[in-house]
Write a structure and sequence with these properties.
26% strand; alpha+beta; 17 strands; Aminopeptidase; seven-stranded mixed sheet; 12 helices; 39% helix; single chain; 2 domains
Length: 376
């Protein structure tokens, strides 16, 4: 068993099939998602993907990281897909049953301990901070890596962040409706009868490549229109974000993992939903609504229609991803605890840099807490 560092995107694609077998069907963990992100966002960094290879040459684990120089923090290791793309449920990939071996091998590599048959490519001298943002708290392999790093003397700081929210579907739709509060259940049934069953509201789903340009244009238009009316820019204001997702939408449509919907009410564009399909989970990534039709509750009708479509399609879960907005619990989604983790190696330079940054952070917090209130 040895660890190999991948430094070129071609190497990522060469492992795509083996990589994806370890991804557990989570779209954000797939090679396509991460390699595409690197193509659009990797200009300021360097690939630091660590592949754990077993004695037969098979991939048994993988850490999809890159390294980026950050002022005051040094050379920071992060997951591919970080930043404005906000890739949830990232983790260290591992073959089932090999999690401890993978975590231990990665910790050895990061701490610059010699692994037989591998040169380590500079090891810990190349990074000052491992920063894992918004990762699942209960993820087994991540817990093992954190423990292994702490055992080797690394400093670990962990803090809570926004939760992901997930609905666990019961076998029948009637059972799901019964999970809702009495008032919400009554409202859902009224919207179903008055709009979806009556034909006033029609849900369209992109099924073929030639339908994608129209569906994508509708999503971007409705999302931007909604946020601009509230004085915000909207996520598609970023050209890199837009280009990345347009690229991913094409790839995921071909793989059967794109669920791009738009809703018409009385023949007018009303709402759009951009979802990514896992093996048994639908991930609701982005949406948009027509501000002039808010009185008709287009967002709620579209959410209801896509929930029903996911349930009818045999998916076991519907995930609203990160963010603690109240509507998620209203639909009976349960919080999936997420954390931010920072790991500092034992090397003196990295510890001094981290200590200086931490002191500055605490000083700023103290100054904010002790700033006198303005006098009338």
């Amino acid at each position: 068993m040895h660890v190999r560092r991948l430094t070129h995107v071609i190497e990522l694609h060469s492992l795509a099939q083996a990589w994806n077998r370890l991804a557990g069907g989570v779209p954000f963990r797939l090679c396509e998602w991460n390699a595409t992100w690197w193509r659009h966002y990797g200009q300021q960094g360097q690939l630091y993907v660590l592949a754990v290879i077993d004695p037969t040459g098979d991939l048994m684990g993988l850490a999809p990281w890159y390294i980026e120089p950050v002022r005051a923090r040094g050379r920071v290791l992060r997951f591919l897909g970080s930043g404005e793309v906000c890739s949830d449920y990232h983790t260290i990939l591992s073959r089932p049953g090999d999690e401890h071996i993978v975590a231990s091998a990665l910790a050895d590599y990061l701490c610059n301990e010699m692994i037989e048959g591998d040169a380590l490519d500079g090891g810990s001298c190349e990074w000052d901070l491992l920063q894992m943002s918004g990762v699942p708290h209960s993820d087994h392999t991540l817990r093992l890596l954190i423990t292994e790093m702490a055992t080797r003397g690394a400093t670990v700081r962990e803090e809570p962040t926004l939760n992901c929210w997930r609905i666990a579907f019961p076998p029948s739709w009637e059972e799901y409706e019964a999970m809702l509060s009495k008032g919400h259940r009554k409202q859902v049934r009224r919207l179903q009868r008055g709009f979806l069953d009556s034909g006033r509201a029609v849900l369209h789903t992109v099924e073929h490549r030639e339908e994608l340009p129209l569906g994508w244009e509708i999503l971007v238009h409705l999302h931007q229109r909604r946020w601009i009316t509230q004085g915000e820019l909207g996520v598609f204001h970023s050209s890199r974000f837009t280009d990345f997702h347009r690229d991913i939408a094409e790839q995921f449509l071909a793989k059967g993992r794109l669920q791009l919907h738009w809703l018409e009410i009385d023949g007018k564009l009303a709402a759009a939903e951009y979802h990514l399909a896992g093996d048994d989970v639908v991930f609701a990534y982005q949406a948009g609504v027509e501000p002039e039709l808010l009185d008709l509750q287009p967002g709620r009708i579209c959410n209801l229609a896509t929930l029903r479509k996911a349930h009818a399609g045999g998916f076991k879960h519907f995930d609203y991803l990160r963010g603690d907005e109240p509507y998620k619990a209203h639909w009976r989604a349960e919080p999936q605890r997420c954390v931010n983790v920072e790991i500092v190696p034992t090397r003196l330079g990295a510890r001094l840099r981290h200590g200086a940054w931490e002191a500055g952070r605490l000083l700023k917090r103290w100054m904010v807490g002790n700033t006198p209130a303005p006098q009338d």
